[in-house]
Structures are given as C-alpha cells and as structure tokens.
Specification:
The structure holds two protein chains of two kinds.
Chain A lengths: L1 H47 L3 H6 L10 H33 L3 H4 L6 H34 L6 H28 L3 H24 L17 H7 L4 H24 L5
Helix pairs in contact in A: 1-3, 1-5, 3-5, 3-6, 3-7, 5-6, 5-9, 6-7, 6-9
Chain B lengths: L1 H30 L1 H15 L4 H6 L10 H33 L3 H5 L5 H32 L8 H28 L6 H22 L2 H4 L3 H4 L2 H7 L4 H24 L6
Classes of the chains: A mainly alpha, B mainly alpha.
Chain lengths: 265, 265
Amino acid sequence: MNILKRELNSNLKSLMIWSGSMIFLIYAGMLKYSGFAKAGTSVNELFNQFPPAVRSMFGLGELDITSILGFYAVFYLYFMVLAGVHAIMLGTVIISKEERDKTADFLFVKPVRRSKIVSSKLLATLLNIIVFNLVTLLASIIFVNMYNTGQPITDKILELMLSLFIIQLIFAAIGAGIGAVINDVKRAASISTAILLSTFIISVAIDLYKKIDFLIYLTPFKYFPAADIIKTSTYSPSFLLLSFILIISFIAITYLFMEKRDINI
Amino acid sequence: MNIFSQELKMSAASMIYWTASIVLFVLLFMFMYPPISKDVQVIESILSNFPPELRRALGMTTLDLSQVLGFYGFLFIYILLIGSVYAMKSGISVLSEEIRSKTADFLLVKPVPRTRIVSAKILSILSNLIVQNLLFMFISYIIISSYVNGSLDTRTFILINLSLFQVQLFFAAVGLFLSVLIKKIKTVLPVSLGVVFAFFVIQMINQSLNDPKLAYITPFAYFDVSKIIQNVGYDTSFLIINIIIIFILTALTYIIYQKKDIPSL
C-alpha cells in the first residue's frame, strides 16, 4: 500500500502535465473543427465520388472527415500515439528506476516480497493510464458536444476510448517487461523508444503500401482501426485475443525477471 | 577542450545508432517507392484536374508521390521526427547528465567558468548533429539517386536535408533550456518523446486543417517539404523565427545555468 501511494505521488506531476496537454489538444482541435466543418461540405460530396481505394489512401476509409465523427476519428490516431508514448515510458521507468535513484537497496531489503513490489508498481501504472484515459474521454465528450451540431456521438467516443485503453495496456505491459529484463534504466528507455517509434513507423508504412499489411500484427496502433469501430461498434476478436496474450505475457515476463533480478547498488 | 572531447567520446555511440536508424528507415521505405509510384500516377492524373484549394482541403499537399523527391519529402516528416527526438535527447541530457551521474561537483569545482562548460557541451551537440547530417545526407543521396532515372535535383535535395539540421537545432535548444529550467530531470527519453510528439501532432493537425496560426507553434511546419520542393527555397519568415527561437533559448540556457543550484552528493 505504501509503495503504491509513493508511486502515485511520484508520477502525479507528469500525469498532470500529460492530462493538461490532452485537454488542450482536444480543445484546440474541436475549436478548429467548427471552422473546418463549414467550409468542407461541398468538398466532401466530391470526395464521396472517389473510388474506395483512393479514399483509403488518405487514411479515411469510409469516414466522412467533415462530420464531427470523422474528424474525431482522425484525432483518435494522434491520441493513440501520445497515449502509447505515455504508457510505454511509464511502464519502463516505474519498474527500473529504483537502481537509478539509488533507492533499490532501501526498497528491496524491506520485508516485502518482490512480487508484491511489482504488483504495487503495476497497479500504480494501471491507475495512471486509467486517469489518462478518463481525462481524454471527458475532455472529448465535453468539447465535442460543445461544437457538435448533428447527432450526439458520445457512445462512439466511449467505444473508441475503450480500444485506446487496450492499446495503453499493451504499451504499458511492454514497457514494464522491458524495464524488468533490461537492468539499466537508460538502456531500457532507449529500447522502449525504439519499439514505440518502430511500431508507429510500421503503421505509417502500412497506410502507404497496402501489400505489407501482414505487418499489422507488429503494431498495436493498427489493431483497432477507428473506422471499423465506428462502423461496426465491435472490436476484432482475433486482435482482442492477441492484445490479451501480449499483455499477459509481458506482465508475466515482468514478474519472472524481477524475481531473479540482480540489483545493482 | 577536455570537456568537449569527453562529451564527444560519451555520445559517439548513440549518435551512430540514431543515424543508422534513420538511414535504415529511408532504405526500407524506398523499397516501397517503385510499386507505390505506379499506383499514385493513376490517382495523380485524376487529382491534377482539381483546383489547388480543393486539394489542400482534402489534406493533399502538393507532394507528388510518383516523383522520387516527392516521395522522399513524404518520408522526410518522419525523418524529422526521429532526428528531433535525438536532438532533444542530446539537448536535455548534456547538462543534466552531470547531476544524474553525480559528477556535477567534480566538474563544477574545476577552474573553468560555467559559461565555458556550457559552450563546450553545446559545441559537442553541434558537432554530433553536423556529423550526423553529413553522414545521413551522403548515404541518402546514394540511396535516392539509385531510384532516379534522370538526374536528381541536387539543390532541392540538399534544401530538404538541411531542414533536418535546423529542426534539430530547435529541439536541441528546447532541450538545453528545459534541462536548466527543471530542477531535476530523472529520465531524459520520456520528456524528449513527449515534447517532440506533441509538436509533431500539432503539425499533423496543422496539415489537415491548414491553419496559418498553428504553423507558428511547431517547428515541423517551419520547413514544409512540399513548399521547399515547390519554391526550391525556404520560407524566409519561418527561417528567421526559427533562428530567433534557437538564439533566445540558448542565451537563456547560459544565463540560468550561471546561477543554477547544483545539488552535491
């Protein structure tokens, strides 16, 4: 309990900065939308006459970018990237920072099992990403409703935020796993950065060139495409399963490696 | 001179890794160029009939993906992203590393004025960035030329590549400034990733909305590749803004570091 409290405390400032930036981003985006929507109606009619292949090249699929839902879906891509950065870094650092802060010998000699320390840290990570998600959700609902003149889309936002949460879990678990396997926090953070950048780049490559879409399994950013969620209101079961497996295995790795880790003092 | 060479020695490996990763990125994406350029040619021929306002509203810039330089320009925003993370990371860590590795009181008691220390460290970042850019420009020139049928427009190519250096200077300056402003930065990469991606997302929004005011916030917009290709030159006002921001942030770094409290052991 003490460890959890301590971790929540030490991540509070960074969580506040992240939340503040997300609120600002959503506010600014929706403010711009109000101007964009007026100008765009005629454009969209023309756009709808394009063959689907051309449309998907612009990353829109069947979405109507001048509708607030389509616009929000474009935003959702950026939420995923930012949430991914937050989650993977949080997971990596929270697990491996004790040695950097020279507090490892203080913490690990306490009469607390290592597995319990890991559990508290993972729980703190979970709470942090839940707050991140809720802030994004609330800010989205409030600002979208402020500028939405058509049908309410709150239920769609909820569905999108749920898939965002799964993606956050995946990245946080990957981060924690790396933090546990790699002994040095600086190297762990570099590897996490490399993973995040490569998954992002792969998702861009798939958008650009459809023939390599077998790479889709490598990038969580592509597991739950916004267009599909909006259209069908369901998540692909195979990707749900894959996410579940990824999360469980990386958490298992975290426990296993922390249990045996040599602590550098 | 000692400080400078020590810094270079410590940062050489990481510079090589980051340079290698952007080279790898260009190499992999250029593999996709021949098939994509064929697809694009068909679409381009349809789209070229549309008025430019419409194309912009559709989120299509003037980048012609069927041309090698157009395609390279499209890739370049991601090269900027990776390069900026590296520059920001270098900027943040170079001064704050002394505090983290508890070597600050060793360095700062030496009979060297603090301004000289800052200068030596900034100079080391600068040389790293210059070497990185030269290496990258040379290798990517070879890669790109192998895809060109006729002769490559060398001037445009160099202008595009030089924008990397300038955006990197911006982020290095932001990093330096943050590192003297914030009392204690525990891990460098989470901060760098967060800040760079925030600017990157603003640029993505700016691209789809084409809002002139947003462009001033993010350095990624200062050097819009499609405009560089079109005008074979930079936008002078943005060029100057960038230089001014870099200058101010660097000056502030000197001033704040002069009086900064350094925690001893």
